[in-house]
Amino acid sequence: MSKLTVNDCDFNGKRVLIRVDFNVPINKETGEVSDDTRIVAALPTIKYVIDNGGKAILVSHLGRPKGEKKPEFSLYPVSKVLEKLIGRKVLFADDCIGKEVEDKVSQMKNGDILLLQNVRYYKEEKKNDKEFAKKLAELADIHVNDAFGTAHRAHASNVGVADYLKSAAGFLMEKEIKMLGKAVENPDHPYVVILGGAKVSDKIGVITNLLGKADKILIGGAMMFTFLKAIGKNVGNSLVEDEKIELAKEILNDAKEKNVDFVLPVDTVIAKEIKQGTESKVVNIDDGVPEGWMGLDIGPETIKLFEKKLDDAKTVVWNGPMGVFEVEDFSKGTSEIAKCLAGLKNATTIVGGGDSAAAIKKFGLEDKVSHVSTGGGASLEMLEGKNLPGIESISELPEKKNRGIVVAGNWKMNKTPSESKQFANMLNGAVGNEKDIEIVVFPSALSLDGVSEILKDSNIEVGIQNIYPKDSGAFTGENAIPMAKDLGLQYVLVGHSERRHVFGETDEFLNTKVKAVLDKDLKAMFCIGELLEDRKAGSTNEILEKQLKQGLKDITAEQMKNIVLAYEPVWAIGTGVVATPEQAEETMDYCRKVIAEMFGEDTAESLKILYGGSIKPENFESLICQKNIDGGLIGGASLKESFIELVEIAKNHI
User: Which of 186, 277, 267, 191 is nearest to 224 (CA)?
Assistant: First the structure.
């Protein structure tokens, strides 16, 4: 699975917005929860978050209040059930956005649980309104989606918030994706699909998608009569979709062409009405269902036939009951198939949500199969091969950086020498022994001596913000490379936008700096970037190509091993505006192509390229997970303890 999961996240001290599925039945007379199955299913994820120091903020819908605050759809009774199940206090907010909620969240301690009021009290939820999603997202630092039952719907609390927060799959969601995903994409064979329920139209997508994947498809439920009528059988008053007869014929022909064993019932239990205790009997399908009678379950011979077809199965997916299982007289087909699945020892057995899940639970066999899906509509759409928005919006698992990662802090003209030493001591204690990430700091010139002394035995490298490309001379106010080397510095910052646009340094002059740095065996962090007017004019690539080709002119491929490239859009530096991950990735991919043209594919592939421009812990994750971004050159956030957070975020990608 390539999606980010809770196991990949650090929740300590974080506010975690968990989308759970607490859409549980409420007894109208008592106002109490009558089935806690979905609450129990969410417990592992909630416990994991709070046990790892997170603040769990739970958001869910309940029923269909249609955008109105109706007391009968309040989640308050759910909070009481959850409290008993989890064995600790569950706070409740009588809203899901607004000041009351913000105040409650601000007072939460690590390990606290807060359940928000029904998110569908707001029409904006189902509309996936951006502003509403943003308000929900502002309550938290990270989003966890554990509500597979809503995964086929693009709503604000499961999809919209993922535009503003990193989103991870909870344990329940992760299992659904793995189990159903395997059944759709990579099932073990023989692969048997059992389909039931009332209508062929409900299962068209599933049948069509699985005809090319399943070895056998067993048809039960009322939908069998549409297929039986399509092959000329008498079905009496059984439920038939006459408008789907031709489609049924096409499906049967398609199954034959694809060599799929498409199995229809050979007998059925019939009655004149759906009622417990009414007269019923079994008829052979070849003899037909008499007029005035209707088929309400598969018969005993069909049960035997299906059991035989399942005998050697390695993967089984069951979606839809075999008959009207809610009525005892017509439940045997469903119960026997459930028992058969429970008895398969060498097969992965997956039960779809909705009626199938209700049936397996009714017969007390939910623990005897591999997986019971919690989403009826969602499981159907996944089996149809559709992309579910609630899954698509979950963040991709960070791609491991083979090139390594650099987290660099440019302190610019900030911090006095004494403040710099104090800050360096703090960094040394927090990340000084870090071996997986390359950490570099660029203090001001007057602070270099003190900072380099403090960090000399650490794994934090120190660089100088600016040099003049001469070893010595009458260059008042400038710093020479031999001076930097004498302090044991490793890096020189070259071409930063402020040197280009405040001090007027040209590409040609920067080229002399790069050469001077490399000639003295130091590493150059070479910066490029376009102005806002350049981007608006569509000339970003043209500007960057010029800066690369002129700034790195006459540099050899061997020397490029001592260069780290930093892309800093000038319009994003110190403005709070950040290039979107897509913008940054596209631009840096282009830069890598230019480097390949200049120095060859190997050099381009090994070159580290950093992004710079208003980086903060809140936005770094979405940037660092991009393929061509190998770290960050950080300005303002490098002057605070948030720099340590950025290092921790980067570590997740090694």
Answer: 267
Q: How far apart are CA 109 and CA 271, in angstroms?
A: 61
Say which CATH class 406-632 falls into: alpha beta
Is residue 496 flagged as an active site residue?
yes
Rounded Cα distance between 148 and 171, Å, is 10
Is position 501 annotated as part of the catalytic site? no
* Pairing mode, strands 294-298 and 267-271: antiparallel
Give the integer Cα–Cα distance in Å for 562 and 599: 14
How many Cβ atoms sit within 10 Å of the Cβ of residue 6? 23
User: If you count DSSP H runs as helices and E runs as strands, how many of each does the chain have, helices first?
Assistant: 25, 23
Task: Please state, rounded to an integer, the average pLDDT across all residues of the chain.
Answer: 93
Measure the CA–CA gap between 332 and 303, rounded to whole angstroms. Answer: 9
Residue found under tokens 């010595």: 472
* Residue 397: pLDDT over 80: no
Token pair of 283 as six digits? 């008829």
* CATH number for the domain formed by residue range(s) 178-392: 3.40.50.1260
| Architecture of domain 6-169 in this structure | 3-Layer(aba) Sandwich (3.40)
Other Cβ atoms closer than 10 A to 243: 10
pLDDT band at 521 (very low <50, low <70, confident <90, very high): very high
Residues 143, 371, 496, 653: which is the catalytic one? 496
Which position among 336, 381, 530, 568 bears the catalytic label?
Answer: 568
DSSP string, 186-218: S--SSEEEEE-SS-STTTHHHHHHHTTT-SEEE
Work out the number of other CB atoms within 10 angstroms of the CB of residue 256: 11
The full set of domain ranges for the chain reads 6-169, 178-392, 406-632
At 202 the pLDDT is: 81
- Do 172 and 41 touch, CB atoms closer than 8 A? yes
